[in-house]
Structure formats: structure tokens, C-alpha cells
Design brief:
3-stranded antiparallel β-sheet; 17 helices; alpha+beta; GROEL, domain 1; GroEL; 7-stranded mixed β-sheet
């Protein structure tokens, strides 16, 4: 009797193997690529996702929509993870890597139909990747990492492909500007703000910048009211109406200690037998608070920001001394203020010195979007700044936040490695053209594989053109004809791509459409790696999950009770809920 291999596995385990398993894997990955195809480029459309709790997400970001959807097939999960990997590594190109991988997978299926073995396809793709990276190096332009003009062009290119460009058009049509350049005005303003924010906190000498040092605060309003604060904005109010609403030349004290009488953590009993004892007890409390406040006054501080409580009695003494106080500020806000003002967080009020104080030109309270906020503005050489985003709804603000993060990420990529390539699908088009010529020098079946790799690269400009409403095939053929005279030795390299805004074929460097070299390199490597990974798999075993397995916004995947319900894990050291990190958006 022939044994049944499926009897080895427990109940609920599904198995597919051989050619069928590979086909299913490639099909699942290709379907994921088809899902995000119409997001690519400045004329790409947006997608809306509604979760089981009815919460809506409206986005044009490929990684965001892929993180939201719940898929079971492991091959589809591999492609989604590749998008997350690119997002975590370079912060942009998440849609492009999925589409390129999808095109490579589709062409791999055609090669399999021709009878070409998976190992030959894998080797051919690796050979083509090696050629692509060589060509990419030859068409790269290099600059100084502190070049503001280039940084601005990179940020503008990134933002032009985001939903923010549509909001700029709408706001201009609603009469907020008097001329037809309203869209460019807003896009240029936001690109400049992003570049300025990065420029203030970057360490150009060591090629480093920490994006998390840029606080992104959101309030509803007009997008044209978006601004950069040379300091920190706190979503709090000044503690007491008797305190000043603005302090010039602010000397800021950060404390992590209560300015109030704390209740004991265990039950305590005080035996009082006379009124004098009550008065003595209250006077003692009064004296403790007064002495702490006096230490603050003596230090020269005129603004007190506390991570813990400030009681009414302490507020009274502080207001009499003309001091502003803000209590129960979140831990990450305290750290941002510390970096912006150069203040030190004090845990012992008895040992304050003037060296512990930070400085800002002014601290003031202001009404923003119907809510009062405290601005710590005008810091000297701040190591942390705030971008205050404004948009007409919470959904728009979330997408605006995602767009700004992508722009910050590409600027970080440029600072790490100050080299750029042309955008608009021109880089993929020129690499495809050169690879197709070099493929003729490769012997055997690998030649066909390398040619299919070139066809896959051309899918990027083809999709951008299609999303822009152009005749995609005519656009790709025109780009091919313009690149036929390309020579790597040319002093000025001309890279032709899709001008999706005007629906033309243009030279992208002259149009100031540029992208960081690191992003393009990461896209090519990741797309080939994930495609080859799927080609190597010929046996799939799927078991039914028994725990509530789920993935958070930062890519963390785990299982626990209640994992099927809406929840988060953003807590500070004291167990209080924190503002979520940038990846949440």
C-alpha cells in the first residue's frame, strides 16, 4: 500500500507542492502588485480601506494600504514584507518595489511556460541585477550632502507624487490664492519647510540625521497654514489663568518631580487631637511646596515644564512670581524640548543650577484649530524642531503626515549618500535599454531571462504613463527612441521619462525630477530578492492559526489574547499612553 504523505500532518494543515505550489505563489504575489498598480506617479489614484471597526484610511501610499489588508497566502505576505522592508530602510519606493517585483514575477511565469528551469531564471535575474547596479552607478549625479537646492528638488519630487498635490489644487480653486500658481506655491512652501527642518537638525559632517527629532504635530485648518517652529509645540495649555500667556527670553526648567503633596501609596492614618495640630499639618504641607517653588524662582527659571503634577498651591506661588507652568507633559515631548532648548530634565528640585536651564526666544499659548497649544519657539541651534501640519480633516492630516515622512526619509537618504538619479521612470527606462543591448552578449537561456528583466523594468514608466492617461505603449517607445544615442561616457547624461503632470516625455534632470540613489538601489535589490525567493519555493504547508496573530504599524507581528480587537502598545515608563511613533501613520 502506497503511504499518503498528507497523513503526516495534523488537522487543518494544507499542502501544495511542485509546479502547482510555485504557480500559486507567483499568482498570489502578482495579485498584490495589481492591487497597488494605480497608486504610482503624480497622477496615481488613492485607495480607501475600512477595517472591521469601521475606521477609514484614505491613502496613496502603497506600504500603508498593504500593511492594512489582511492576507493569508504566505507568498502575498512575502511581497508585503518586502514593501515594509523598503519603507523601513529608505522610507520611499514602497509601491515601486511591489510593482517591479510583480513584473519580474509575471515574466518569470512566462519563462516557466517556455520550459526554462527556475534556477536559470534566478541566475539570469541576479546577472541582470548586477548589470543594473553598474548602469545605475554610471547615470548617477553626485553632490555635497548639504546642498540645499538639490535637497529642495528631491523633496519637491517626492511630494509631487503624493495626495498633497491634489489638496493644493483644491485649496487654490477655493479662492485662497489669486493666481494659477497656487498649487506650486503650496508644494514649494511645504518642500522648503521640510528641507529647512532637516537642515536644522542634521549632522552633515557625519552624514547623519535622526527623523524622530522632527516632531510632527497636526491640527485641522488650511494646508497653507502649515508652518515650521524652531522649537517644540506642546498640545497642552498653561496651567493657570493667573499666569502670563507669553514669556519673552524664556529660561526653561524641565522637571520630573511632583510639585504637589503626593498621596501615600498605602493606607495611612494620622491621629489629630486638636485644631492646632491640623493647622500645623497644613502649614507643613504649605512650607514644603513653598520651599520647592522658591528653589525654582531662585534658579532664574521663568517657564516650568513638568512630566508630573503641579498642584494648585504651587501654581499660585508660580503665578505670583510671573512664571508659566505646564504640567503632565508626555515623556517624548519632554525629550523633544530637552533637545530643542538644551535644558536638562531635573529629578531633584533641591539641586537646580542655572546650567540646567534651557533657552527659547519666547514661550506662548496660541489657539490652533480650535485648541490651545503651547509654543516653545525661537530656540538657539535646536536639535529638535516641530512641523505643524494643517489640513481640512483627520484623514487628510494622516495622509499629509505620511507624505511628510516620505519627504523626510528621502532627504535622510541623500544626506547619508549624496547621489541622485532621474525620476519619472527614466532611470528604469535607460537601464532597461542598456540591459537589452548587453543581453545579446550573454549566451544560453540566460539571454532570454535578462531580456525579460529589461521588460520588467519598463513596466515602471509604462504604469506612470497609464495612470497619467497617456498612451502607455507610445510613451515607452518614444523613450526608447530617445535613449538610443545614450553613451555612458557622455559629459551630460540625458534621462528621458514621463512628465505625468503635463502628459509629455521630458528629460528629467532638466525638469528637476530627481530621486536619491539609495532608494533606487534598494528597490532593484529587494524586487530581485523577493522574486527569487518565491521562485525557489516548491512546497507550501499552511496550518490554521489558533492565536490572534496580527501586525502593528511598525511591522511588529505577534499573537496575544485580544489581538483581534483595536489596541496599541504605546506606553511610557509610568504606564501612561504615549503619542504613537511616526510609523503609526
Amino acid at each position: 500500500m502506497k503511504p499518503n504523505p498528507n497523513q503526516l500532518f495534523g488537522e487543518g494543515v494544507k499542502r501544495t507542492n511542485g509546479q502547482q505550489a510555485r504557480r500559486y505563489n507567483l499568482l498570489a504575489a502578482r495579485l498584490i502588485a495589481d492591487l497597488v498598480k494605480n497608486l504610482l506617479g503624480p497622477r496615481g489614484l488613492e485607495k480607501m480601506f475600512i477595517d472591521i471597526l469601521g475606521e477609514e484610511t484614505l491613502t496613496k501610499d502603497g506600504a500603508t494600504i498593504l500593511r492594512k489588508i489582511d492576507v493569508e497566502h504566505p507568498a502575498a505576505k512575502v511581497l508585503i514584507e518586502s514593501s515594509n522592508a523598503v519603507d523601513n530602510e529608505v522610507g520611499d519606493g514602497t509601491t515601486s518595489v511591489v510593482l517591479l517585483a510583480g513584473a519580474l514575477i509575471e515574466n518569470a511565469e512566462k519563462l516557466l511556460d517556455l520550459g526554462i528551469a527556475p534556477n536559470i531564471i534566478i541566475d539570469g535575474y541576479l546577472k541582470a541585477l548586477e548589470l543594473s547596479l553598474e548602469i545605475l552607478q554610471s547615470i548617477t549625479q553626485r553632490f555635497n550632502n548639504y546642498d540645499l537646492e538639490v535637497m529642495y528638488k528631491i523633496a519637491a519630487t517626492c511630494l509631487r507624487s503624493k495626495a498633497i498635490s491634489y489638496w493644493a489644487v483644491n485649496e487654490g480653486q477655493n479662492g485662497n490664492y489669486q493666481n494659477n500658481s497656487s498649487q506650486n506655491d503650496i508644494e514649494n512652501m511645504i518642500a522648503k519647510l521640510v528641507v529647512e527642518a532637516v537642515h536644522k537638525i542634521a549632522d552633515f559632517t557625519n552624514n547623519r540625521v535622526e527623523i524622530d527629532d522632527i516632531k510632527i504635530e497636526e491640527k485641522t485648518g488650511n494646508i497653507s497654514s502649515t508652518q515650521l517652529i524652531r522649537g517644540i509645540v506642546i498640545d497642552k495649555t498653561i496651567d493657570n489663568f493667573a499666569m502670563p500667556r507669553i514669556i519673552e527670553n524664556a529660561r526653561i526648567l524641565l522637571i520630573n518631580e511632583d510639585l504637589e503633596i503626593r498621596k501615600p501609596r498605602i493606607d495611612a492614618e494620622i491621629n489629630i487631637t486638636s485644631q492646632d495640630q491640623i493647622k500645623s499639618y497644613l502649614n507643613k504641607e504649605h512650607f514644603i511646596v513653598r520651599s520647592r517653588v522658591q528653589n525654582i524662582i531662585s534658579s532664574g527659571a521663568n517657564v516650568v515644564i513638568s512630566q508630573k503634577g503641579i498642584g494648585l498651591l504651587a501654581q499660585h506661588f508660580l503665578s505670583k512670581a510671573g512664571i508659566i507652568s505646564i504640567r503632565r507633559v508626555k515623556e517624548n515631548d519632554m525629550q523633544w524640548i530637552q533637545k530643542a532648548t538644551a535644558a536638562k530634565i531635573i529629578r531633584d528640585i533641591e539641586a537646580i543650577s542655572d546650567k540646567d536651564l534651557g533657552y527659547a526666544e519666547k514661550v506662548y499659548e496660541k489657539l490652533v484649530g480650535g485648541d490651545k497649544m503651547v509654543f516653545v519657539d525661537g530656540c538657539e541651534n535646536p536639535k529638535s524642531v516641530t512641523l505643524l501640519l494643517r489640513a481640512n480633516s483627520k484623514r487628510a492630516l494622516d495622509e499629509f503626515h505620511r507624505s511628510i515622512l516620505d519627504a523626510l526619509s528621502v532627504l535622510k537618504d541623500f544626506i547619508i549618500r549624496p547621489a541622485v538619479v532621474a525620476g519619472g521612470g527614466s532611470t528604469e527606462a535607460i537601464i532597461a535599454y542598456i540591459i537589452r543591448r548587453k543581453a545579446n552578449l550573454i549566451s544560453g537561456r540566460q539571454q532570454i531571462v535578462v531580456q525579460k528583466f529589461a521588460d520588467s523594468l519598463e513596466q515602471i514608466p509604462l504604469i506612470i504613463a497609464k495612470n497619467a492617461g497617456m498612451n502607455a505603449m507610445d510613451a515607452v517607445l518614444e523613450i526608447r527612441s530617445k535613449h538610443q544615442y545614450f553613451k555612458p561616457t557622455d559629459e551630460k547624461i540625458l534621462c528621458y521619462g514621463i512628465d505625468a503632470i503635463n502628459g509629455n516625455i521630458e528629460e528629467m534632470f532638466s525638469q528637476n525630477v530627481i530621486e536619491p540613489y539609495i532608494v533606487k538601489e534598494q528597490i532593484l535589490k529587494t524586487a530581485v530578492e523577493v522574486t527569487n525567493l518565491l521562485l525557489r519555493v516548491d512546497d507550501v504547508l499552511m496550518a490554521k492559526p489558533v492565536m490572534y496573530t496580527h501586525t502593528h504599524g511598525d511591522g511588529t507581528r505577534h499573537s496575544h489574547r485580544g489581538g483581534d480587537k483595536k489596541h496599541d502598545h504605546y506606553f511610557d515608563q509610568l504606564g501612561r499612553k504615549q503619542r504613537p511613533g511616526h510609523h503609526y501613520y
